[in-house]
Amino acid sequence: MMNRRTLLVSATASAALAALGITPSVLAASRIKLGDAQPFGFDALIERARALAGKPYAPPPSPPADVLSRIDYDAHGKIRFRTDDALFASGPGQFPVTFFHLGTYFRTPVRMHVIERAKGGPGKAREIVYDDAYFDMPADSPAHKLPPGSGFAGFRFQESRLGDQKTRDWRKNDWVAFLGASYFRAIGDLYQYGLSARGIAIDVAEAGKSEEFPAFTHFWFETPEGNGDTVTVYALLDGPSIAGAYRFVMQRGKAVIMDVECALFLRKDVGRLGLAPLTSMFWFSEGIKGTAVDWRPEVHDSDGLALWNGAGEHIWRPLNNPPQTTASAFSDDNPKGFGLLQRDRLFDHYQDGVNYERRPSLWVEPRDGWGAGSVQLVELRTDDEIHDNIVAMWVPKAPAKAGSTYRLRYRLHWQADEPFPSPLARCVATRLGNGGQPGQPRPKGVRKFMVEFKGAPLEKLPFGVKPEAVLTASRGSFSYVFTEAVPNNVPGHWRAQFDLTADGNQPVDIRLFLRLNGKPLSETWLYQYHPFQSPAG
């Protein structure tokens, strides 16, 4: 039986598409209302962002605030987009698009558009007009009070309808989602969401300033062709200090790969301009955990920052839940990449059905020379897993002044492991404890570190030969330093042990790698130790 939900695309829209020489079937099957056709191109979008940045910032018009306030957590959870009305729902091999509803936690209306191209002609974009008929919701839901055309909160791509229906239902499984400000995320090889990326980060942990959250206010979806596994989305970014245009070319294979191109224009000076920012959560690990703060051994979406700098050095920096907000800068020139990774993949280390062991790693691969700057890591204090407290980003060396323009291309790899691992042994564990030697009284103010490495160079060590632990620290002194094979009969699995004595409460930056005959055997381990840190919790 047909109802009004099955007849939302008007005859007028279908006739207009036909006039462009476009087959309307991929849109007609999605049963959505479309606005008038407007020319669209990425170059024109860039010029639109440039012009926008030349004007004072004006927040987008918002639907009635009292209605949004009533769409609280419970009410929002009862609203579901009808997957039969998904954009591109019927196209062969295509990825259907479903939309998130506005609510008290997602108040900024986002305008969605679909692009169709006549053969050899320019693109034409039509707005997808909001209607509550797209959503299943209770009859008494406050969302019914929103006026037509209110906009959406975000969107997600579902799995292809031609996927493996025995194991994955496209109506239930999505692989990328854009929701809230400029945040977006994707699943990796292990079919699990985790950390997020952002379009931009403005003044994160900048002294004397409040962090700004520019938002993607408009999206445009390129109509897919054929049976490809790639989708293209364009976005307009706007905020008090910046405007920008983005193009995302996203590929769903074993993992998710995104090619990002953006043009950014500053309205105002920015103290800390974070490009290609990543956001994650780190509460505690086996390294530092308060007694009985939680029943699980570890809780985190990512356990470390990986760097591949312009000089070719691979670096691993385990994450912290610090006593206070800290910002670390790793200066570089034309970095090869960086990422927030989840290296620990053992369920027994988490014991939680939310699958922390399956959270994706996210790697940023610059596609052009980024020049001088630094990868900056901001770590904030958290007492629960519900708060993202980790940000990693590229910050250019030159001051970010009003009127500045940035053109950037980079690739995001959402997968189980980093895409360009070091050929050297890599760090697989960082453990902390009280310092001292067996059979002797424990000295006060001394901390013991056990850092484990595993990899091919260590497997090739001649019998009886031990690697050298090369250690430096920003302050303090080392004692009881040695290396040994981990007694688990796993080839190439070694650990370096050392005690650190450091007075005072200021952080200590430690650097370590394994070496033999002057040649490195491992990536470089960096750690920021906070003396007398209170237990996480």
UniProtKB/TrEMBL annotation:
One of its GO terms (cellular component) is outer membrane-bounded periplasmic space. The lineage of its organism: Bacteria, Pseudomonadati, Pseudomonadota, Betaproteobacteria, Burkholderiales. Its main location: periplasm. Pfam families: MdoG (PF04349). Residues 1-28 form the signal peptide. It is found in: Periplasm. Belongs to the OpgD/OpgG family. Pathway: Glycan metabolism; osmoregulated periplasmic glucan (OPG) biosynthesis. InterPro entries: Gal_mutarotase_sf_dom, GH-type_carb-bd, Glucan_biosyn_MdoG/MdoD, Glucan_biosyn_MdoG_C, Ig-like_fold, Ig_E-set, TAT_signal. Residues 40-529 form the Glucan biosynthesis periplasmic MdoG C-terminal domain. One of its GO terms (biological process) is beta-glucan biosynthetic process. This is Glucan biosynthesis protein D. Gene3D superfamilies: 2.70.98.10, Immunoglobulins (2.60.40.10). One of its GO terms (molecular function) is carbohydrate binding. Keywords: Periplasm, Signal.
